[in-house]
Amino acid sequence: MRPRPETKPGPPFLLNSVDRFGRQIAPAVISVSMAIGPRALAYARNLIGDPALAMNYFEEAAASVSAAIEEKQVSGAPAIRNVAAYLFRTFIRMVDDAKHKEKILEESLKESGEARIPSTEEAQVEAAVLLNEVMETCDRASRDVVVLRLEGFTWKEIGKQLAISTHAAEARFSKALDHARKVFKIRRRKG
Amino acid sequence: MRRPLPLPSASSKSKHHKRKPSVDKAFLELGRKHLAEDFPNPTRQGCPQDDVLRLLAEQPKKVEDSVLDHITLCSPCYRTYSGFLQQMRAKHTNRRSQIRSPEPPKV
Do A141 and A172 touch, CB atoms closer than 8 A? Predict the structure, then answer.
């Protein structure tokens, strides 16, 4: 097997026990945050550029996850299976939403007479938001189809690989994207 | 009994109907780029072994959900997985072309 490339250790990652709204972050979530924090922030830095803002969002995400865990415990709902992945996706959604809002604001500040041509960066953000939504909300089979399609597989190849029909593969893909678009629109409306 | 021929106007589907472009090609390209580049994981935290990624590429149903979750949040693993997928695809294509054009019999 190929040896993993060696990497330099980054600066120490420090997290507050409350977010900027004063909401507590549970100790269990803090320990998970310490583990995934550095790479989650690396993602946000690529997208929004500001590390301090990214950190704020990360703390907010951690506080939201803490609240969700507590709520599930109280209501007797099934517990979150993978807290790390749940936290990562919550954070990504917050960053994506922030980036999208920023884009909308930029667009509205532009001259009104100018024809609107979607920039590459904007398209990139939209694709990222939509894809993250698919990965967060869809079932396993649909996610498998989406990943294979991204890799350039034909519907026939996907069907063969996942032991489903060509039509089912195509239908799963469009359904997953439609669902993600709907969820995204609802979230945007809610703000 | 012979069935009557349909009137010309009765056939609503044209022979040359185009398939609707289901999703933008750009979305697929950007989506792939997003997974392959936007999730750096320099310390390779929580990464599965390459064997698991190979298995995910070859027999996805045999691998746990958490591995698929991981590759969509870790660009280095996604790139490795992508490599395995392309290898597998190339292998299948070669096999198919060999079946279609077998070697000519030796005289």
Answer: yes
The answer on pLDDT for B107 being more than 50 is no
Contact residues of B toward A, CB < 8 A? 22-23, 26-28, 30-35, 38-47, 49-51, 60-61, 65-66, 68-74, 82, 85-86, 89, 92
Residue range A72-96: average pLDDT? 84
Shortest Cα distance, chain A CAs vs residue B50, angstroms: 7
Q: Is A52 in CB contact (< 8 Å) with chain B?
A: no
Per-residue exposure over A78-108, b if at least 16 CB sit within 10 Å of its own CB, e if not = eeeeebbbbbbbbbbbbbbbbbbeebeeeee
Compute how many other C-beta atoms are within 10 angstroms of the C-beta atom of residue A16.
Answer: 14
Give pLDDT, residue B77. 95
Is the pLDDT at B8 greater than 70? The verdict is no
ipTM over 0.90: no
Q: Is A120 exposed, middle or buried (0-12, 13-18, 19+ CB in 10 A)?
A: exposed
Residue A106 φ then ψ, to 5°: -60, -45
Interchain CB contact of A124 with B (< 8 Å): yes
Residues B40-57 have a mean pLDDT of: 90
Q: For residue A3, count CB atoms less than 10 angstroms from its CB and return exposed for 0-12, middle for 13-18, buried for 19 or more.
A: exposed
Taking CA–CA distances from A87, the nearest residue in chain B reads B73
Tell me the average pLDDT across B75-89.
93
A31-39 average pLDDT score: 85
Percent of chain A with pLDDT over 70: 84
Classify residue B16 by its DSSP letter: T
Chain A residues with CB-CB distance to B23 below 8 A: 173-174, 177
